[in-house]
User: Which sequence fits this backbone?
């Protein structure tokens, strides 16, 4: 423990803790969800730190064509609006995050997961039946406008409330290793070692 | 430190796999009956060490312990690291199976270099042993990050930019691994000195 008293060691430790932002990880995670006609992408490293300045590529799953590229911000986030082409072709998206230091991962966002609200947005309200009297027309128009406004308001509120749930669900798919995974790995290692010992001991026995 | 799938070109992947296969076969030949349990113990340590996140400044780093593996195991670090990385790819999704050869090479070669560089000093004991252990842990991460940059430069942009990124990012880890290796070797020298001589049997 005498090393802990060394001023050099303390200075080194201090230097480490005052280092500017850096990243080192074993894996990059990326996930995406849709809210209010915008697709939100988030990238982070294993350990939870946001993957800043990471290149995001959005690719059409069927044609493998690059739709758009971008870079994550300081929070590891990148967003883009749903394009007309995606709506018309029901495009399944592959979102690829590449940090440039050997880490790359992708997320599949199927069309049905992000196009529901986009379709609703583009959907016209059904034409009103031709009224017989002017008074009825005015009344119906007012009623329709009110209905439309209410429907839009409800949609907006639901979208806003659902956004964090969608984000949380998407994020949950990227959870790190569990205790079960760790013990499974350790079991394999010691099991393999036991197997090698068994084979070696049998070979030794034969030689004798 | 783990390169993901889909980044490297086929010639790099095959070269890495071939070199790892050579290293592993030499490592397996040096693996005798007495060494199996220490090797499996260190493989388990390597497997779990990557899960330990050390909070440093605004981010966090992950241990590799390549230096410790190299110093204690010599050529046997090849099969040990290969097994650890194989299980990490399979269970945790770190790296990948196609890139396993390159990742093993990038971690095992620096470990082996540390074995030859540090081993003669390690047996002298005292301060020399402490410095040697620190150097082993430090150099292993340094060489691994240089190899990482070299590997990526064959498939990506210029080496210099990559080297700045990868080596720069790993500087705190070099010190942390150096210190951890130093304490582990000092501890083993006091408590279980025969563990330091498993490659000599």
Assistant:
């Amino acid at each position: 423990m005498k090393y802990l008293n060394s001023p050099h060691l303390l200075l080194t430790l201090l230097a480490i803790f005052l280092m500017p932002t850096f990243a080192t990880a074993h894996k990059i995670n990326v996930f995406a969800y849709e809210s209010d006609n915008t697709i939100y992408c988030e990238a982070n490293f294993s350990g939870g730190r946001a993957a800043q300045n990471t290149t995001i590529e959005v690719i059409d799953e069927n044609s493998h064509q690059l739709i758009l590229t971008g870079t994550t911000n300081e929070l590891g986030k990148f967003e883009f609006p749903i394009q007309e082409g995606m709506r018309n072709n029901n495009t399944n998206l592959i979102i690829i995050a590449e940090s440039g230091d050997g880490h790359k991962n992708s997320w599949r966002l199927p069309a049905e997961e992000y196009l529901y609200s986009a379709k609703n947005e583009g959907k016209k309200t059904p034409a009103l039946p031709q009224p017989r009297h002017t008074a009825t027309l005015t009344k119906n128009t007012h009623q329709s406008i009110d209905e439309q406004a209410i429907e839009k308001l409800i949609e907006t509120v639901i979208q806003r409330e659902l956004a964090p749930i969608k984000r949380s669900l998407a994020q949950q798919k990227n959870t790190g290793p569990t205790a079960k995974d760790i013990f499974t790995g350790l079991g394999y290692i010691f099991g393999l070692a036991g197997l090698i010992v068994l084979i070696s001991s049998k070979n030794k026995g034969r030689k004798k | 430190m783990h390169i993901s799938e889909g980044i490297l070109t086929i010639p790099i992947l095959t070269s890495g796999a071939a070199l790892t296969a050579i290293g592993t076969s030499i490592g397996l030949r040096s693996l005798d009956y007495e060494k199996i349990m220490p090797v499996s113990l260190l493989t388990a340590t390597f497997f779990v060490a990557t899960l330990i996140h050390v909070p440093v400044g605004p981010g966090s780093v992950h241990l590799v312990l390549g230096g410790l593996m190299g110093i204690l195991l010599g050529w046997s670090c090849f099969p040990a690291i290969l097994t650890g990385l194989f299980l990490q790819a399979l269970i945790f999704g770190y790296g990948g199976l196609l890139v396993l050869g390159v990742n093993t090479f990038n971690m095992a070669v620096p470990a082996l270099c540390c074995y030859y560089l540090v081993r003669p000093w390690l047996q002298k004991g005292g301060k020399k042993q402490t410095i040697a252990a620190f150097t082993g842990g430090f150099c292993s991460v340094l060489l691994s990050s240089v190899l990482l940059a070299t590997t990526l430069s064959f498939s990506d942009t210029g080496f210099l930019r990559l080297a700045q990124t990868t080596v720069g990012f790993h500087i705190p880890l070099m010190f942390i691994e150096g210190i951890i290796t130093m304490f582990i070797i000092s501890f083993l020298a006091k408590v279980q000195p025969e563990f330091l001589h498993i490659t000599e049997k």
